Amino acid sequence: MSEETTNLAARALTMTELIAYQEGAVVSRTLIDKKIGTLTLFAFGAGQGLSEHTAPYDAVVQIVDGEADITIAGTAHHLVAGQMIIMPANQPHSLRSDQRFKMLLVMIRA
């Protein structure tokens, strides 16, 4: 376990406080990085996003602050804080928002 992960383990955490927004940028913080998968928190500045890409693993996105538009295999989904979506492996997906937002990405590699 990394020192940063050790510092987070066995504590009650508020996800929105674990990462700060940076204007015009995407900031990420890896919370867990294991062979079987990762937990990464992202903070997107207004107008930021990720262009369409694929991943070889299933992933879950949970919006923890704000709202975002997530497109999976050509179908658009609008998610708000508290909602999540499962992105199937090998399906093209992208996300963006005109306002800033934070999300938790859970990548499952098994």
From TrEMBL:
SUPFAM superfamilies with a match to the protein in the record: RmlC-like cupins
Residue ranges constituting the Cupin type-2 domain according to the UniProt record: 42-106
Gene3D superfamilies for this protein: Jelly Rolls (2.60.120.10)
A Pfam family that the UniProt record links to this protein: Cupin_2
Database matches in CDD domains: cupin_HP0902-like
Highest taxon above the source species: Bacteria
Ranges annotated as spanning the membrane: none
Record protein name field: Cupin domain-containing protein
The organism of origin for this protein: Geomobilimonas luticola
Lineage: Bacteria, Pseudomonadati, Thermodesulfobacteriota, Desulfuromonadia, Geobacterales
